Amino acid sequence: MDSQSTSGSGHSGSALARAAGQAMPIVLGYIPVGFAYGVLALKNGLDPLNTVLMSLLVFAGSAQLIAVGMFGAGIAPLAIVATTFVVNLRHMLMSAAMSPYLKSWRKRELAAFSYQLTDETFALHATRFARGDTHKAETFWINSIAQASWVTGSLLGVVASTLITDVRPIGLDYALPAMFIALLVGQLKDRAHLVVAVIAAVTAVALKLMGVTQACTILATVIAATLGLGVDAWIRKQS
C-alpha cells in the first residue's frame, strides 16, 4: 500500500468529500429503505428506542426487516436469532473476498470495518480495492456515511409511523433493488461482466420460482460466478 492508503490521516477533508460522492447511491437507497424499516418495526410492536438501537447496533437491512416481521408474528426469540444468523452468513464470503486487501490493517481497524460492512458497501469497496484505492480514512467515511443514512431513515420512519399505514403503495420497497442495480452498473466493465450479471439474475428468478426463497440469490451468485470463472479460464488457455 502507498503512504496515503496506510495513514489515512493527511487529507481527511478530501477523503470525506470523495467518500460522500461515492456513497451517494447508497444513501439514496438506505434512507427510504430505512424509513420503511422504521415504519414496519413500530407496526410490528417494537418501541421507538429499540427500533433505532437495532439500526445502530445490528445495522443489517435485510436481517432487520426479517427480524421485525418475525417479531410481529410472535416467533420465539431464538428462532429470530437463528434466522437472521443464516441470512447474514453471506458476510463470511464478503469478508473472505476483502481479506487480501486488508492484511496490514490492525485488529481494531478490521473490527470497525467488519461492523459496518454491508452488501452495498462491500460492492463499492470491492470496486475501489480492485483498482488500488485502499485509503483507510475514505473507506471508514464511506461506511460511516452509509450507516448514518440508514439510522436517519430509521428515525424518520419512527417519526412518521403514525401517519403511514402501509409503505408498499408509495414504492419504498423498490428502493433497495434500485440501489443494487445502480451499484452493479458501476462494476460492469466489459461484455463478460454483463453476461455473468444476466446469468445471475435469470438464475435467481428461476430458483425463486422453483421455491428456493432464502438462498436463491446466494446460489445464483455462486453459479454465475463459477460459470464466468470457467469461461474466463478457458479463454485465457486458448490464447
Explain this structure to me?
This protein is mainly alpha-helical and 239 residues long. The protein folds into two domains: 3-172, no CATH class; 188-239. Helices cover 74% and strands 0% of the residues. It has twelve helices and no strands. It has helices spanning 3-7, 12-43, 48-57, 61-72, 77-87, 90-98, 107-115, 119-130, 136-160, 175-185, 191-209, 216-238. α2 packs parallel to α4 (61-72), α2 (12-43) runs antiparallel to α10 and α4 packs antiparallel against α5. The chain is globular and about 65 Å long. The protein starts with a helix and ends with a helix.
Short key terms for the protein model shown above:
mainly alpha; 239 residues; disordered N terminus
Tell me the domain tally.
2
Q: In terms of per-residue confidence, which ranges show pLDDT below 50 for 5 or more consecutive residues?
A: 1-10
Number of helices: 12
Biggest beta sheet attributes: none
Number of E-state strands: 0
Terminal residue distance:
32 Å
Radius of gyration: 19 Å
User: Which geometry do the CA atoms define?
Assistant: globular
Order of helices and strands: HHHHHHHHHHHH
Helix content: over 70%
Strand fraction equals under 5%
